[in-house]
Amino acid sequence: MSRRRISTLVALALLAAAYALSVSHVAHWRGTGPAAHPPQVTIRFAHWQLEAGMREAFDLVARRYMELHPGVHVEQFAVPGAVYKQWLNTQLAGGTVPDLVSFNSTDLTLVAQLPRHFEALTRWLEEPNPYNAGTRLAGVPWRLTFIDGGRNRSTYLDQYRNYYAVGLCTHTMRIFYNRDLLRAITGRDAPPQNLREWLELGKKVRAHRPGLQAVAGARENTLWLMPTFVNQAMSRWLLASDCALRFSTTSCDFFGDVLLGRWSLRSPEMQQALRLARAFGGEMPPGFLQVDRDSALQAFLRGDAFSIPAGTWDYPTMRAQAAFPIGAFRLPMPAADDLEFGGFVLLPVADGNLSTAMPFYLAKQSRHKAEALDFLRFVTGLEGNRLFSHASHWMPSIEGAEIDAELEPFKQTLGGYNVIDVQNGPSVLTGPGADYTRLLETNLHLLYAPNGGVEAFTRAIEGRFRDTVRSDLQKQLHVQLENLRRRDLALGALEFLDAGERAEAGRQLSGQHLVETQACLLAGTLTDTAPQSLP
Amino acid sequence: MKFGRCLSLALAVAALSPAPRTRAESPAPVLAEAWQTLSDGFYDDAIRQFAAAGDSRESRLGRAMAQCNRPPVTTSSLGDAQRQFEELAAADDDIGHAARYFLGRLQQLHPMTPDPTAAARTYERLVATGADDRWCRLALVKIAVLRLTVLPSPNGLAAHLATAEPLLARTNDPVTRRDLHLVISEVRMHHQHYDATTLGHLQAALSEPTLPADLRADLLVQTAQVSLQLGDPAATRAHYGRFLREFPKDRRHYTVQQALARLGGPLPP
User: Fold this and answer.
1) Average pLDDT over residues A53-67
2) Is B109 close to A422, i.e. CB distance below 8 A?
3) How many CB pairs under 8 A join A and B?
4) Are B217 and A156 in contact (CB under 8 A)?
5) Residue A134, SS3?
6) Nearest-CA distance from A395 to chain B in Å?
7) Residue of B102, B249, B252 lying closest to A492 (CB–CB)
8) How far B124 CA sits from the closest chain A CA (Å)?
């Protein structure tokens, strides 16, 4: 036998052996199935929270879950926020999206995409969370274990009358301060209780040391916080636009009233709102609108500023870097008897929108939906949520989940007035859309300039104010109609599926009728008040 | 040559061996899959699946529906969808009625310049069949929306608001009647007509037992507030009380508590 022939036969024998091995492997798996050899299920979740300690907190929760479920492996994908949206869109298009995804669904144009890519969670949210068995939340529907009843503009979509996500934590805006400086300046530990006390404290801080800032203002922080502050201080006025008497004013109600002539930029209420904005920004150093968030944070951490307005999501970073004890207080509201600023406040005001944050959505593409859903239940059960809160220094989303003592100042005030719609509430300062926001923001320097003020600001924008409101409401209507067209066909299609889907369509249709009615009413307001229809 | 023969044999064995099922072997898409795809908003895929499912009337209806939103939406593509709906609408059966309903939806929602009058006529013709099936019931509510909001009414607001009332007599279906009450009360509240008629619609909608919870929460608050305006504090107390018991996590809980404590007065402070 020649050497060449022997080599050929050896190669063929190896090929045959490899083939026989793979056939036997496949036959073995088909014959015995997963019961004998449970496959390792891997579930993946994605988020963009890269703050100090966040990835470690997620790892901790995942490890605990894997201890309880040895057959499941949990992986996190921490993707930088700057590229997160593009990354997510690529994964969705490529069919490689992780099982659970966190993203910001408050953009109305993204709302239409949700039912295409993510599961509605409503039916599971009505059932108890099994991870709360044996606790005081045993038997309570999962939805009702969240501090906001599971319902906020990220988790619940009014348009579809369905829940699509659950939030893992809660965030509030706070003014963080240097406790050592407060004691040195005032001789006290108690932070200010209302707007007037806060303004007085600001004067003392500036007098305490040349160059010491009362508030480390930055463009982003101010533009996040000030709209909430002004809304809360003007809540009685916002409620006046609630013509449907739901105690829940919508953006269309409130800004539709501009078109109907019920208020204008010169109305006393709006002028008061601008005075509040000026007082708020007046506590920041000159030029704060040009300062970025990181520079403001560094000024605070260096001790060059007494306080900084920020979201509680920044707390883990601050506590890791500050050389002084940090305190926090809520946005100071005007007292009811404050003659200058107190006329429209409803006290106590609810803390923000009483919303949970960091919503996680279950991808339709997931191959392990049951396991992914179970992981969501774990991390929003009392044990998992407490674990996450403790490790991340973020507030839990589950009512009654224990928190560390240092997080007490961040506890949301659950009892308080909240009079705006959870899905489409108005914001006096950011308006019904991007044009309004741009109009006000690009002229904001006039509100704070030494030779500026409310009147200068008003004069600069009043010629464009009403048209800008109209243009934004028209865009809102456009988006609403686009969503209606999509949803109309989706619900129609469900009518041809099984009884469960038909029941779901029926459940959502009543809400759809109302959404359509409201869109038509907005269209009517826009038509009736169009410039050419005026006498 | 012998090596070549061996290789051919090995490849033949491999080709004949059982292998994992691939996409190509998947069963042909059936109608249910196509409807599911359409409900998920994948219009191109849905059209392909409907086409692969055969040329039944149901499949043609699905294709026409998907065509309404399949990008790029143009006058011509909407015209195609309209022609398909019109062909299917000739028959007096479930598919025919669905086609008429979606023809109305197309006229009302999809073109650059919608034609609510034509849509209302299409819905009217569907309801006139007297079938009282699911499509006729939906059409009835859409007629109410159009009459109350978009269609012109020369006789003033009160007459305008009354145009939807007769529609209630045209169905016995409790859910459709409830939805009509919801739509009518919504428009009356928008125009700040806080009167006994509005209260009647709110109460009727609220009494239907399958009302979704979020709508029920709104209706309890609205009924309480309108009752108060009409001088019935007992009804206000009762409705606020039900709201507080049934919706302890609603963000309006505190506000309603205060409103209940100060019936008729301004909210404190």
Assistant:
1) 94
2) no
3) 182
4) no
5) coil
6) 18
7) B102
8) 17
Structural domains of chain A, with CATH: 41-171+355-398 (3.40.190.10), 173-350+418-470 (3.40.190.10)
Q: Which residues contact A270 (CB under 8 A, 6 or more apart)?
A: A263, A264, A428
A414: chain B residues, CB-CB within 8 Å: 254
Q: Chain A: nearest CA to B33, how far in angstroms?
A: 9
pLDDT 10s per residue in chain B (269 long)? 454 554 454 444 444 444 433 333 343 458 999 998 998 888 999 999 999 999 999 999 999 999 999 999 999 999 999 999 999 999 999 999 999 999 999 999 999 999 999 999 999 999 999 998 999 999 999 999 999 999 988 788 899 899 999 999 999 999 999 999 999 999 999 999 999 999 999 999 999 999 988 899 999 999 999 999 999 999 999 999 999 999 988 889 999 999 999 997 888 77
Between β-strands A173-178 and A326-329, what pairing exists: parallel, antiparallel or unpaired?
antiparallel
Burial of residue A15, with CB atoms counted within 10 A of its CB: 0-12 exposed, 13-18 middle, 19 or more buried: middle
Burial class (CB in 10 A: 0-12, 13-18, 19+), B22: exposed
Alpha-carbon torsion, ordered A439, A442, A444, A446, to 10 deg:
-110
**Do you find a cis peptide bond into B209, omega within 30 degrees of 0?**
no
Q: Could you give the CA distance from residue A216 to residue A201 in angstroms, rounded to a whole number?
A: 14
Chain B residue nearest residue A112, CA to CA: B41
- H-helix or E-strand spanning residue A163: strand A162-163
Distance CA A371, CA A2 (A): 59
**Of the candidates B66, B109, B212, which has its C-beta nearest A481's C-beta?**
B109
pLDDT-based confidence at residue A224 (cuts at 50, 70, 90): confident
The DSSP output letter for A79 is: -
**Backbone phi, then psi, for A173, in 5-degree steps?**
-90, 135
- Rounded Cα gap, residues A291 and A213, in angstroms: 13
Query: Dihedral of CA A280/A283/A287/A288: which sign?
Result: negative
Judged by DSSP in three states, B258 sits in helix
Q: What is the pTM of this model?
A: 0.83
Q: How far apart are CA B120 and CA B116, in angstroms?
A: 6
